[in-house]
Amino acid sequence: YKRQVKYFDLESERKMEIFLRSLAEVKWEKSTKARVASGANPKTEWKHLIDNEICGSEGVSVGYGKIPVGEYLPLHTHEPQEIYFITRGAGLLTHDDANLKKISEGDIVYIPCNKKHGIKNTGGIDLEYLFIFMIDNWDEVRYNFIKR
Ligand code: FE
To answer: What confidence category does residue 14 fall into, taking pLDDT thresholds of 50, 70 and 90?
Structure first.
């Protein structure tokens, strides 16, 4: 992926507008067959919230994920660094490759570039989380799912 961080460009003619949308109005999406074949869990879902295509943002993009009860976001890596903010539920986060850490609503997680991570929902409700990449469009992130 290309590093696409941009700061305020005072000479830019671009007039950006503030973008506001309700999470409830955004549709859930699911993995394609090809993505499932590459190791994605077909039961996880997500929403596209912020990216270059949606609102013209540059250097940052945001999605919202859901892991049903008993399900998991498989162990994976990707080149860009990422932030998770758990908004609902509880589970286990893969931490330092093999170790697990308990996570729950209100927790924020920083994942360095290329670091293995995954989440298992161990609670009684859907686990939901915001995820943030410092790139224009997280659709372009290449997920490498680690098969066990
Ligand atoms: Fe990730």
So the answer is: low
